Amino acid sequence: MLLSQIVNPQFKSTFGKLCNSPLPAKGLWKVKRMAGWLVEQEKPYDEARVELCKRYCLKDEKGEPIMKDNRFQGLEDNAEFLKEHADLLNSEIEVKVKFHFEEIEAAKLTANDLLVLDGLVFEPEETE
């Protein structure tokens, strides 16, 4: 799975549906494990992203990052930043928790939700 998939706001929204659904016990247990795993993945991503932002953003005369509305400035058109950030997002990460469809069926996910969760949900006859 690519890092970009789990930091996508749509993924977080869809995962939120799982968290708030009346799932069977095994599904709930896996959702809880997945939530912990997601936090573990996001922390190093956020740290790396902030370091990239600091490295490539505009800086003031003291060499400090220029911020506006709590955002680093000068990154939108910075080709080096965009390339490194894309490389970071395209990092492959090993998924520790996967769901069988019947474990999360009660969440009443849409086809789009299942596309967002691609690689995490398996049909009963598929192998993990």
List the helices and strands and how they pair.
Blueprint: H1 3-7, H2 9-19, H3 25-56, E1 67-68, E2 71-72, H4 79-89, E3 99-100, H5 101-104, H6 111-116, E4 121-122
Parallel strand pairs: 3-4
Antiparallel strand pairs: 1-2
Helix pairs in contact: 3-4
Structure description:
This protein has helices spanning 3-7, 9-19, 25-56, 79-89, 101-104, 111-116, and strands at 67-68, 71-72, 99-100, 121-122. The longest helix has 32 residues, at 25-56. Helices cover 54% and strands 6% of the residues. The protein has 128 residues and is mostly helical. Helix 3 (25-56) runs antiparallel to helix 4. The model has no long low-confidence stretch (mean pLDDT 91). The protein has one domain (3-117).
